[in-house]
Amino acid sequence: MKFTFDRDAMIKEIAIAQEVITNKSPVSILSNILLIAENNQLVIKATDSTLKFTTVVPVDIQEEGRTTIFCDKFMSILSSLPSGDVEFIQEDIEVTIKPISKRFTAKLKSQTSDKFPEIGTSENVPFFELPSKDFKEMIRQTIFAVSDDRNRYFMTGVYLVKNGDVLTMVATDGRRLSCDNKTGLNVPDFQPAIIPTKILQCILKNAPDEGNIQVAVIDKSIFVKIGNLEFSSVLIEGQFPNYQKVIPENLTYSIMVNKADLDAALKRTTIMVDKKVSRIIFRISSGELKLISPESDSGSADEIIPCRYDGQDISMALNFTYVTEPLKVIDSENVVFDFNINEANEGEEASITKAVIMRSEPAGDYIHVIMPMNY
User: Fold this and answer.
1) Residue 238 carries which DSSP code?
2) Residue 171 in contact with residue 145, Cβ under 8 Å?
3) Burial of residue 176 (number of CB atoms within 10 Å: 0-12, 13-18, 19+)
4) Percent of the chain with pLDDT over 70
5) pTM score, two decimals?
6) Number of neighbouring beta carbons within 10 Å of residue 191
7) What pairing do the DSSP bridges indicate for beta strands 94-99 and 106-111?
């Protein structure tokens, strides 16, 4: 096998292959990429056995063939070279890499392609199109809320479901839930799917903000095409929780606070929070929100910021991570917390013990549900 390629074009594709590969051992075939040179193009494939990646790079082929090489070493060599054309020559198990503009030669050992896992083809898979910007937004606003508890494997992915003309993406770890609903996307019906986060992270990193991407959910797999890039992944099996029951309704109280004020105050007050507990107190009174870091071995902190609220004094304890993470993806000047309260006896402070909804103002497609903590 022999071909010539542009170093800069190749390095972009190999960088994506590196994201997919998790086994970095040079003795494992899963640390290799499969190269297929034919019809004046180079097909590159990579997999970690669950996530699969395929791309096509234009090359000048002098001799067709296929082989696999250690991805990390190939990437290290390419990164060290200047821009320009590079020769790739395979003879038996030895691969020679020679930049045209330098008197440099690197030799890599290859492994035969018949040892590489079968990646298959997406031919005849029923793809549908989605606006890339909308799909990336749905991922960004939910992916951080997945569970990291492997005993609850069905919550370690993001749930994608279509109800009528509404496309919904949901993630939860049992203590908080993020949900984004999009309408008007003209998506055909498909079976609900629990999508592993790794393929979603690849989409976030590699999909453009403009144009469409192609998606297919079929059997136990999801396929995504982004230009010349194609990703596919095995879906997570299991029954996703009934997320609609978790989302509270008929919430009658709310506070509105400036997003930048809240973000800055949280960064300061949480310095003193015990990270094993991650608890911060929201003490709400007319026109004021006081953030309190409870006393810890290090000390304590508090800060008062203005808010829009006119009612009785109330308090709630929240895991501050469950507030700071959605703050990063809420795209509005103000943030609203909706809730109901437990009525208190005269002279006592009311409290919030049931789920709180955190959202943008004005309300958009996205909500974040948080279960308060005891304090």
Assistant:
1) S
2) yes
3) buried
4) 96
5) 0.92
6) 12
7) antiparallel
